[in-house]
Amino acid sequence: MPILYSLVARGTCLLAEHSATDGNASEVAANILAKTASVDSRVSYAQERHLFHLLCEDGIIYLCMADEGFGRRIPFAFLEDIQAKFTVKHGRIATVAGEGDLQDVFGPTLAQQMDYFSNDEYADKITQVRGEIMDVKRGMVDNIDKILDRGDKIELLVDKAASLQGDAFRFKKSTRHLKQALW
Length: 183
Known about the structure:
Helix content is 57%, strand content 21%. It contains 4 helices and 5 strands; from the N terminus they run E-E-H-E-E-E-H-H-H.
């Protein structure tokens, strides 16, 4: 699972978190939170083979840890999704909630979205659009193949029609000769 840890915090006050791995991710995250000002920002920090991605908006910090090879686009899409869900469900109480108060209500959402963004190929909008483009491309190739087949069939029909016309002309001519010979 490329997204291994996530949290939502207000300053250094941890509101909810989820970890899909053992290790010191929560301690490293706590150090990052202690050094982070609650100013709107999007940053990434490297720690060994992992990257910690942070999105801060309106004093609420959304942070996740992902494998280094997972890139930045999908983790930030994850953080934006978490931010939108959190703001809608808990935006008002987030400013007064205490340490861990939202763990039971938002921790499962973190787990679910971590799994979705880590495993679903269409979690990322760019990947989704690329998939849709490939589907359209396949459809167009199929349509072009059908048009070419239809064109081949039309050419075959034109050739047969020309052959029939020639045969009809020869038949008419031979019947005229036969008629003249019989009279």
